[in-house]
Amino acid sequence: MTQWLLEWIPQVMERLSYFGIGLLMFLENLFPPIPSELIMPLAGFTVSKGELNFQYAVLAGVIGTVIGALPWYYIGKLFGESRIRQLADRYGKWLTISGEDISKANHWFHKRGGMAVLLCRLVPGVRTLISVPAGINAMPIGAFILYSTIGTALWCTLLTYSGYVLGQNYGLVETYLGPISKYILIGLLLVAGGWIWRRRQTQKHRP
Fold first, then answer.
1. Could you count the other beta carbons within 10 Å of the beta carbon of residue 70?
2. Biggest alpha carbon–alpha carbon distance for the chain
3. What pLDDT, in 10s, does the model give residues 5-58?
4. Which domain holds residue 89?
5. Rounded to whole angstroms, how far apart are CA atoms 28 and 40?
6. Which InterPro entries does this one have (predicted)?
7. Type and span of the H or E element at 135
8. Cys-Cys with 60: which of 16, 21, 82, 132 at CB 3.0–4.6 Å?
9. In terms of C-beta distances under 8 Å and separation of at least 24 residues, what long-range contacts does 143-150 make, across chains too?
């Protein structure tokens, strides 16, 4: 992460408090290089100093994230997978997004539907992109917001509590979560694969 982000994020949170948390999490969904793995742990550290309320900090993060997910949802709904893949391959380097990333997210969505939205909110690097296939496949907006809210609430609570416990070392959350998230993603893929295999086996044995 660039040095200016490390300096800018604490400044925004210090000046704008809960609104700053929500704003940063909103921007994190629009621009994936801004990491929630730093924003919410910093909020947790601020809570540990008695300057913020834990529940309100989490709530601000959830609201900002869900609102930030809506533009991607409507982009998917408006343009469709083929067009978005082309745009991602041409301009996605600025957002660290490629056409292949879009295809992977869409594949995940087809496997798990609404649960993919919930589960992928817990996986860095995928949590933002899953909004696109939800829009591409015209997932009902009410269901999208519900699953997004549940998954985001779990994610924000985990990160905020981690920052609360670690205190001034809240930055370690981002350092260690990156490698761990890869194993989480592999685990989720295995679970999805096992579920699909069992479903097919059940269908084969039906009369």
1. 17
2. 65
3. 667 778 888 889 999 999 999 988 877 666 777 788 888 888 988 899 999 999
4. 3-204
5. 11
6. DedA_domain, VTT_dom
7. helix 131-136
8. 21
9. 143/114, 144/69, 144/73, 144/114, 144/117, 145/66, 147/114, 147/115, 147/117, 147/118, 147/121, 148/65, 148/66, 148/69, 148/117, 148/118, 148/121, 149/62, 149/66, 150/118, 150/121
Please indicate, yes or no, whether the overall pTM of this predicted structure exceeds 0.85. Answer: no
- Tell me how many helices (H) and strands (E) the chain has: 9, 0
Dig out the tokens for 144 from the structure: 């999208």
Helix (H/G/I), strand (E/B), else coil: 98: coil
Please identify which residue in the block is written with the tokens 């083929």. 82
Residues 6+ away with beta carbon under 8 Å from 58? 40, 153, 156, 157, 160
What DSSP letter does each residue of 105-125 carry, written as one string?
Answer: HHHHHHHHTHHHHHHHTTSTT
**Which token pair is 47?**
């809570």
For the stretch 141-168, pLDDT in tens is 999 999 999 999 998 998 898 888 876 6
pLDDT at 120: 77
Structure tokens at 90: 């041409």
Pairwise CA distance, residues 122 & 152, whole Å = 7
* Cβ count within 10 A of residue 12: 16
Q: Confirm if 119 and 188 have CB atoms less than 8 A apart.
A: yes
Question: What total of structural domains would you count in the chain?
Answer: 1
Q: Which of 171, 140, 163, 148 is nearest to 62 (CA)?
A: 148
